[in-house]
Amino acid sequence: MAGRINDEDVKAVRDAVPIDAVVSEYLQLRNAGGGNLKGLCPFHDEKSPSFQVSPSKGLFHCFGCQEGGDTITFVMKVDHLSFSEAVERLAGQAGITLRYEEGGYNPTHQRGERIRLVEAHKIAAEWYAEQLATSPEADTGRSFLADRGFDQAAAVHFGVGYSPQGWDHLTRFLRGKGFSDKELILSGLSQEGRRGPIDRFRGRLMWPIRDIGGEVVGFGARKLYEADNGPKYLNTPETAIYKKSQVLYGIDLAKKDIAKASRAVVVEGYTDVMACHLAGVTTAIATCGTAFGGDHIKILRRLLMDNGSARVIFTFDGDAAGQKAALRAFEDDQKFAAETYIAIAPDGMDPCDLRLAKGDEAVADLAEPRTPLFEFALRQIVVRYDLDTPAGRAAALDEAAPIVARIKNSGAQHEVAVQLAGMLGILDTQFVVKRVAQLARWARERGGKGPAPDQQQRGGGGGAQQYAPAQAAPRGPALNLRNPVFATERELLKLALQRPELVSPAFDAYGVDEFTAPPYAAVRQAILDAGGAEHGVQDPQEYLIRVREAAPDDTVRAMVTELAVEAIMLHRGVKGVDETYAGAQLVTVRRRAVERRIRDVASRLTRLSTHGDPGELAAVQNELWVLQQYDQALREHGAAAL
Predict the structure, then answer these.
(1) HSE (CB half, 13 Å, CA atoms) of 565?
(2) Number of domains in the chain
(3) Do residue 86 and residue 45 come from a single domain?
C-alpha cells in the first residue's frame, strides 16, 4: 500500500500549480469580474457558464451543480483520480519530489494505477519516436510520411513513431523501466502471447493520442506491410485511461487556438489533422476510430464557450460514406450552441490529399465555413423527391419539417423554414413556417413522455408519430388478431422484418406509439434500436440478427422471431406482396394514429371554446386543420402522402 504523502509536500504542490492554469487545460476561462474567471462546467451540461475559478484563493465552484474545491480536488474529479494520484500528477508538472510517510517512497509500487499507465505511454511514445527517427527498419514508415508530404520535423511535432516488427521489443524495453507484465497488459501496449506478453503494435506507424491535458493515453497505428493481416488502422483498446468516445486526436495542440478563434475543424484521420495544422488550420481535430458523438461535443463546448460566433466545421469525403457521416453529425447538431457547417473537398479529396494536390492554401480554404450542416441535411432529403409534383413537395415537406423544428433558436428556425419553402418550391411560405412551428411545439409539449418527432424522423414521410399519445414500449404475449387494428400493426411489422425494401424508408419515420398493441410497440422499439428497417434492405440476415439482439428480453425476442417467419396474410383479391400492399398497411396504421390525434385535439378545442385563451384557441384550431389536411391527403393519395 502506498505511503501517505507528506503534508508539507501536498501544500507545496497546491502553492506551486495555479488553479487557473490547471483548469484552463480543460476548458476556456474568461473574466468574471472581481478577479475571478468563469467557464462552462466540466461536471455537468450547461448553456451559460456558472463555473467560477478564484486564482487568488486557489478554489473553484460551480453555482449550477455545487461542485467545488481546490486544484487537487479539480484534478481528482475531472480525471477520476485518487487523492494521491492527483497530487502525484501535479507534483510531476511542478517538478516537486514527493516524500512518503509510513515506509518511504517506492516509485514502482506506490504510484497510482492511472499514473503508471500514463507514464508507460509517455515512455512508449518517446521510444516509438526514436525508432522512427533512427531505426533502419523504419525507412518504410519514413517513406510513407514523405509520400504524404510530411518531413521529419512534422513527425517530431506530432510525435509520430514506429513500432518494430519483432514480437516484444517494446515489452522488453518497458520491463527494463520497471513496469510489470500486469501493467503492460492493462495499458494496452502489450497483449498476452503464448509465452507471455508481446507487443500489441508491430511494424506500424504510430500516432500518440493525447488527452486534453497533453498526456499520452493511447495510440493509433497504421499498417505498413502487406504481410500484416490486421486492420488498416489499429487503435489502443479501451483501458482505464483510454476511452475512444472521449478523446479527440490533436486536441492538445488545437485547444488554445480553438478557444481563441472560437472555431473547430473536425476531420476524419490522423494525417488529415497533420495536413491541416501544417497548412495553418491549427484548430483541426479528429475522432479516433469512432463516430463523432456526444462526449466529443462536451469537450469542444467547454473550449468554444458556446458563444454566438463559435463555429464547428466538419470535413467529410464526398462519397456516400462521407455524406452518411455528415448526417450522423447532424443528429447531434443541436447539442451545440455553435453554428455547424460542412465542407467537402473538390473531387472527394481529404485534407491530406488536397494538400498534396493543391497546396496549403487549398486546405485553408476548405476549412472556411461553407454549407450549414442543417442545409446539407435538408438537401440530402429533398433531392430524393420529385418536386415537380404536389405530392412530391408535400412528402418532402413532411420529412424535412421535423428537422427544421429541431433548431432551438426560434429566429433561426423561422429563417430556415423560409429557406425550406424555397428549396421545395412552395409559394405559401407561411404555411411551411406554421408547420415547422407546430412540430416544434408538439415536441416541447411531449417533454420526456416519449420520442420527439425529430428523434423518429429517419428517412421517410412525415408523420403522425408526433400525433398519437406517447406510450412506453411495453412487452407481452401476442394478441387476438380479431381486432383489425392489431392485425394491421402485425402485418406492417412482418413486412418491416421480412420485406424491408417494401416499407423503407417510410417505416423508419413511424413512432413506437403508432403501434397500440404493447408487444408490437416493443418490436417497433427493437427495430428502432437496431438502426431501422432501412438496414435490412442491404443485408437482411444481419438486420434480423441486430433486431433480435436489440430486443430487451426473451419475450420480445421471441415475438421478433415469430413475426420474421410468419407468413404475410394477403387479403382476398390481393395478388401478392408488393409495394401496393405494403403501402396500404403503412397508410392504415398512420391514418389510425392521425385519427387518434384528431380526436384528442378536437376534445381540447371543445374545452377551450368555453373559456380558453383566444391565442391558444386559434393555435389549436390551426393544429386541427393541419391534421385534417394530412388525413385527407392520406385518404386521397395513399402511400404517396406519407
Answers:
(1) 7
(2) 5
(3) yes
> How far lies 136's CA from each of 142, 152, 163, 317, in Å?
10, 14, 12, 35
- What's the whole-number mean pLDDT along residues 500-507? 92
- State whether 85 and 205 are in the same domain: no
> What is the gyration radius of the CA atoms in the chain, in angstroms?
29
- Among candidate residues 434, 406, 442, the one with its CA nearest the CA of residue 601: 442
Domain boundary among 431, 446, 461: 446
d(CA 99, CA 11): 12
Say if residue 436's pLDDT is above 70. yes
Residue 406 resides in a domain: yes
pLDDT confidence band for 110 (50 / 70 / 90): very low
Bigger pLDDT: 500 vs 298? 500
Rounded to a whole number, what is the largest CA-CA distance in the chain?
Answer: 90
Contact between 292 and 264 under an 8 Å Cβ cutoff? The reply is no
The neighbouring-strand residues paired with 33 are: 36
Indicate whether 413 and 539 sit together in one domain.
no
Q: 235: which strand partners?
A: 220
**What pLDDT is recorded for position 342?**
85
**Which three cell numbers mark 634?**
392520406
> What's the pTM?
0.60
Residue 308, all three cell numbers: 454566438
Residues 147 and 61 in one domain: no
Residue 112, amino acid: G
For residue 278 the three cell numbers come to: 501544417
Ranges 103-107, 463-467, 539-543, most confident: 539-543
C-alpha grid cell, residue 511: 413512432
Taken in order 428, 430, 431, 432, is the CA torsion positive or negative?
positive
Distance from chain centroid for Cα 401: 22
Burial zone of 614 (CB within 10 Å; 0-12 exposed, 13-18 middle, 19+ buried): exposed
Question: Cβ neighbours of residue 218 under 8 Å, at least 6 residues apart?
Answer: 121, 188, 208, 209, 235, 236, 239, 241, 242, 244, 247, 288
In this predicted structure, what is the pLDDT of residue 499? 92
The position carrying cell 423527391 is 385
- Residue 165 lies in domain: 113-242
* Same-domain status, 588 and 621: yes
CA dihedral 452, 456, 462, 467 (to 10 degrees): -40
Strands 161-163 and 68-70: unpaired
Give the span between the Cα atoms of 426 and 419, in whole angstroms. Answer: 10
Q: What is the mean pLDDT of residues 186-212?
A: 94
Output the pLDDT for position 473: 36
Task: Over range 66-73, report the average pLDDT.
Answer: 87
Three cell numbers at 589?
396504421
- Asked if residue 636 lies in contact with residue 591, where contact means CB atoms within 8 angstroms, the answer is no
pLDDT confidence of residue 222: 96
- Highest average pLDDT, of 271-280, 470-479, 567-576, 587-596, comes from 271-280
Per-residue confidence (pLDDT) for residue 449, from 0 to 100:
37
Mean pLDDT for the chain overall: 83
Distance between CA atoms of residues 64 and 170, nearest Å: 46
